[in-house]
Design goal:
homodimer; alpha+beta; Uridine Diphospho-n-acetylenolpyruvylglucosamine Reductase, domain 3; Alpha-Beta Plaits; GMP Synthetase, Chain A, domain 3; 3 domains; five-stranded antiparallel sheet; 20 helices; globular; Alkyl-DHAP_Synthase (chains A, B); FAD-linked_Oxase-like_C (chains A, B); Vanillyl_alc_oxidase_C-sub2 (chains A, B)
C-alpha cells in the first residue's frame, strides 16, 4: 500500500549503505531523527467536512469524506509536505475526495462546485513537489478530485501512433498497457511510479529520455478537458499554423482552467535496442563541453546526464561496494580522471544502426574532451535504480537528514554561472545556524540552447519540525530568488504550484502574467479551480 | 525591384518549357490570358489618405502616404490578391505605410493608433496567402506597419546558439548574416526569398527542412513584442514547466496581440554535409508507407517530400529535357516504377557519420517498399529550384492559367482519405462550367503522427477577372470546408489570416476560440490591431 506520509510503496525501502552514512557524517555531522506522527492521530485531528449536506445525494456517491481519504489527499511531496506529514501538523485538509469515473462525472462535480461555491483541486498521483494539490485555508469547502479511477488505455491508433488514456493513468499502467501492444510512450519522470499522464500534462513534465521522446509538450497530442463552461476538445493534428495552439494553453495550466480527463499521446514502437553508457571526465569544464557538443551536434542519444564532481563523489560513496569503487577509481585516475572527475551517463535507444552510429559519435566526442568510457555496467545500474531515488528521502530521514532538490534550466552561456550561484547559496544558506549543507548537481534534459540544472541539498533536521521547516524555507526562498533573477526558469520540470507562484511574475513579466490571468478569468471567473496555484 | 503585382523580383522569370504547355493544354485546354493593369493606373485610383492631418508631425516622418507605397502594401499573395493586382481592382488600400526603425518607433505608432482610433497592420514580407495583411473596408484609417527597416542580426550567442534579429529580416538576410559566422537557422519556407522572420513567428511558418531544424515553433526562442499595453519581453529559456508558454501565445498571433519587433532564434552550426536524394516507388500505397516508416523510425533525415503520381508526372513534364526524362522513365519502368510511379525526395544534413548512417537506413526502408533509388542528381535540381516555384504562377498566368495550392495536415490514419476528398473536390469543382481542373499533391513536413498534404490546382482563367475570382472562391471554399470537416487543420503552414478565419471555429471549437478571443480582448480591447485576421 502507498505510504500515507512519504514516498511510494510501504513495502519498499532503499537502504543506505554504511559508507553512505559515514560520508554524510563527515560532511554535515551526525543526524538526529525526529519522531513521526501516527496516521490515526492525524485522522483524529481532521475536522468535520464543510461540504453541503446535500452533496452525498447530489454527487451520487462520488465523494468520500472519510478522515483517512482526506489525510491522504492533503499533501504532495515537497519537503514542506513531508515535514507536515511526518509531524502530523497538516494544517488544512480537503473537505472530501471525489473519484470520478468519466468526463460526465467530472462535469457533475464542476456543476456542483459552481452551484455550491466549492473549490475543486484536480489530483493525479499527488507527487507534486510545488504545492499543486494542497488545499488553501479558505472559508469555502474544498473538494479534491482524484482521477485515479480513469486509468485505462481506451484507444490505440497504430497508424498514427496515438494512444488515448484516462487522465488518471499512472506511469507504470501507461507503459504496461502500451507494451502489451508493442508500444511505449517513453515518458519517464523520476516520479514515474506514482505520477499520472494527466498530471504530466497539467504540470509540463519532462522525462529522463526526453532527448529521444520529447517533453510532455511534444508527446501530448490532444484530448479532453472538462471546464466550468463545458467540454474543451483538443483534436489531434500533427502540426498546425492555425493560430495559437490551445494544447499549449492546457499544458502547464495546473488545474486552473479545467480538469483534464482524457489524454491522447504520441507513442512509439518499442525500440530494437536500448543501452546506457557511462563516461568519466577529468573535470567539469571538459565534461560540460562534451555534453554541449553532443547535443548541438544532434547526436541521436535518448538520454544524457552529467553529475558534477561532488555528485559523482557522493553517488560513488552512496553506492556501497567500496572495493569495486576503489578499483574503478584507480583505473580512472590512471586515465586522468581523479579527484575532480565528473560522471556522464548517456542512453542509446532506437534501431541497431542508429545506436551503433550514435555510440561511435558519442565516444568520439567524449574522447576529444578527455572522457574515459567505461561501458554499460554503471549505466545498467542507473537504469535499474532510475525510479527509486525518491525512496532515498525515507532512508536519509531515518538518519536525521532532510534532502530536497531545486531545478531550473538556462542557456548554455549561463549554466556555469547559475549553477555556481545556486550551489553557493545552498551551501552557505544555514551558516548563521552553524549548519553545513551538502550540495551537489547534475545537468540533464539537454537542448541546443542550454540544459536543466538539478541541484540536490542535504541538511540535518533541527530539533523541532518548525525549525526544520524554517531551514528549508530559507534555503528554498533565497535560492529561488537567485534563479529567477539570473535567467533561470523557476521550474524546468516540476511546475509552479503554490510554492513557485511568487517567483513566476519575474519570469513571465507583467504582460505574460496578464495573458495567463486572462485565460484563468475567462474559464473560471470565480476562481473555483485550484486557486492559489500558478497565479495567486 | 520587387514586382508590384505578383511574386518576386521583376528581373527573374521562370520559363515554362514547351512540353509543359502541351501537357496543360491536353489536360485542361488552351488558356486565354487576361490583360494586366498598369501600376500608374492603379496609383491614380488610390483615394486620399484618411490619416489625421497631425500624423505627419506626430509620427516624425515614419509614415509614407504616397499612392505607390499604399498600392504595394495593399495585398499579399493569395490568388484573390493576385487577381486584384492583375486587374487593378484593389478595392481597399491602407491609408499609409509606416517604416519603424526600432521598438520605440513601434510604440510611437501604437500610441498614435490608440489616440486616433487607427487600425494597425503589421507587415513583414507581404507574402501571406491567407489575407493576413489586407486592410478591411472600414470607416477607420488603416496604417500598415512595414517592418522592413528592422532587418539586422543584432546579436549572436554562439555558446547558446541564439541569434537575435530585427523582426523584418527576410530569409536571405537571415541566412547570409548567420552564414558569415558559420551558422544557419535552417528555416526554408517556399516564401523564403521575401518572407521575414517576424512573419514566420506571427503565422507559425514551417520550412522545407523542418524534419531537422523544426518548425518556427521550435526555432523561436523569445524576443520582444510591442503591445498597446507596453512591451512584452519573452526571455530565452531552453524549456520550462512554469505554466503556459507565452511564446506559444505569440506564435500564430498574426498581429492581433501586438507587433513582433525582435526575434531570438535557435541556430545551428553549418552542417558538415548536405545532400538531397530521389527515389521512385511503383505506386502511392508503397511510397506513402515508406515515408511513414522512415519518420516513425526517427531516421535522421532533414527533409522528406512525396509527390503523388499526377504530381510526379506533371513535374517530369514541366521539367523540359524530354529525352533525358524518357530515358529515366524507361529505366524506372524496368525496375517496376511506371505509370503510377511516385517520386520521393529526401534530404540528409549533418555530420558525415550521421548522413552515412541515415542514407543506409533510408535506402533500406525504401527498398523494402519497392523504391528505386536514383541518387542525388534530381535532388540537386530540387534544391536549386526550391524557392523559385512561386515564379511559376507568373509563367502560367501568361498562358491564361491560374494556379493555387491548398494545404493541411492530418493524422496518418486519415491521410489517404483527406487527400482523396481534397483532390476530388478540386478536380470536379468547376464541372458545372464545363471546366477541367488539373490537380496534384505532395506530402511534406512529416511527423510520427501524420503529415501535411499540399495540393496544387491549375485551372483556366475565365473571360473576366470577376468570373475567374468566383471560380477560385468556389474551389477554395468547398475544399476548405471539407478539410476542417474531415480532421484536417485549416492550415499547416500558411496561417489563418482573413481568408481562413471562417473555418477556424470548427478546428478550435467554441472554447478554443474563446481562449484566443480572451487574449485578443485583453491585449487589444478596441480591436485596433489587424482586426478580421485570425478571429473576426
Amino acid at each position: 500500500m502507498r505510504r500515507w506520509n512519504g514516498w511510494g510503496d510501504e513495502t519498499f525501502n532503499l537502504a543506505l549503505p554504511k559508507e553512505g552514512k559515514g560520508f554524510l557524517t563527515e560532511r554535515i555531522g551526525i543526524g538526529q531523527p525526529l519522531a513521526d506522527a501516527a496516521l490515526q492521530d492525524v485522522c483524529d485531528k481532521v475536522p468535520e467536512s464543510r461540504l453541503p449536506a446535500s452533496s452525498g445525494s447530489a454527487l451520487g456517491g462520488l465523494v468520500d469524506t472519510s478522515p483517512e481519504a482526506r489525510v491522504r489527499h492533503a499533501r504532495g511531496q515537497s519537503l514542506a509536505d513531508w515535514l507536515a506529514m511526518r509531524s502530523g501538523e497538516f494544517g488544512v485538509f480537503p473537505d472530501g475526495v471525489a473519484r470520478p469515473r468519466s468526463g460526465q462525472d467530472v462535469q457533475t462535480l464542476l456543476r456542483f462546485a459552481r452551484e455550491n461555491n466549492v473549490h475543486l483541486i484536480p489530483y493525479g498521483g499527488g507527487t507534486s513537489v510545488a504545492g499543486h494539490i494542497n488545499p488553501l485555508a479558505v472559508d469555502k469547502p474544498v473538494l479534491t478530485v482524484d482521477m485515479g479511477e480513469m486509468n485505462q488505455l481506451t484507444d490505440l491508433d497504430t497508424e498514427s501512433q496515438i494512444a488515448t488514456f484516462g487522465a488518471g493513468t499512472p506511469g507504470p499502467l501507461v507503459e504496461s498497457q502500451l507494451r502489451a501492444h508493442g508500444y511505449t510512450l517513453g515518458h519517464f519522470p523520476q516520479s514515474f511510479e506514482l505520477s499520472t499522464i494527466g498530471g504530466w500534462v497539467a504540470s509540463r513534465s519532462s522525462g529522463q529520455q526526453s532527448l529521444r521522446y520529447g517533453r510532455i509538450e511534444q508527446l501530448f497530442a490532444g484530448g479532453r478537458v472538462e471546464t466550468l463552461l463545458g467540454t474543451l476538445n483538443l483534436p489531434t493534428i500533427p502540426a498546425s499554423s492555425a493560430g495559437p495552439d490551445i494544447r499549449e494553453v492546457i499544458l502547464g495550466s495546473e488545474g486552473r482552467l479545467g480538469v483534464i480527463t482524457e489524454v491522447k499521446v504520441r507513442v512509439s514502437r518499442l525500440p530494437e535496442q536500448e543501452s546506457f553508457h557511462v563516461v568519466f571526465f577529468p573535470d567539469w569544464e571538459q565534461a560540460r563541453a562534451a555534453c554541449q557538443q553532443l547535443v548541438q551536434n544532434r547526436t541521436q542519444l535518448s538520454m544524457l546526464r552529467l553529475s558534477n564532481a561532488v555528485e559523482t563523489e557522493t553517488q560513488l560513496a552512496l553506492a556501497g561496494h567500496p572495493r569495486l569503487i576503489a578499483l574503478l577509481e584507480r583505473y580512472l585516475s590512471l586515465r586522468g580522471a581523479s579527484a575532480a572527475k565528473c560522471m556522464m551517463t548517456f542512453g542509446l535507444t532506437g534501431s541497431r544502426r542508429q545506436c551503433k552510429s550514435a555510440l561511435a559519435e558519442a565516444r568520439q566526442v567524449c574522447a576529444e574532451f578527455g572522457g574515459v568510457y567505461t561501458g554499460t555496467h554503471l549505466g545498467a545500474k542507473w537504469a535499474e535504480k532510475r525510479f527509486t531515488m525518491p525512496y532515498l528521502r525515507e532512508a536519509l530521514w531515518e538518519l536525521g537528514y532532510a534532502v530536497d532538490t531545486l531545478e531550473t534550466a538556462t542557456d548554455w552561456d549561463n549554466v556555469d554561472n547559475l549553477l555556481g550561484l545556486m550551489e553557493n547559496s545552498l551551501r552557505h544558506g544555514l551558516e548563521d545556524e552553524g549548519e553545513s549543507v551538502h550540495v551537489f548537481t547534475h545537468l540533464s534534459h539537454f537542448y541546443g540552447q542550454g540544459c536543466s540544472i538539478y541541484t540536490t541539498y542535504v541538511f540535518r533536521v533541527a530539533d523541532t519540525y518548525e525549525k526544520t521547516l524554517s531551514r528549508w524555507m530559507s534555503l528554498k526562498h533565497s535560492t529561488s530568488e537567485l534563479i529567477v533573477a539570473n535567467r533561470g526558469t523557476i521550474s524546468h520540470q516540476h511546475g509552479v504550484g503554490k510554492d513557485h507562484a511568487p517567483y513566476l511574475p519575474i519570469e513571465k513579466g507583467e504582460l505574460g502574467m496578464l495573458a495567463i490571468r486572462s485565460l484563468c478569468n475567462t474559464f473560471d471567473p470565480d476562481s473555483l479551480l485550484n486557486p492559489g496555484t500558478l497565479v495567486d
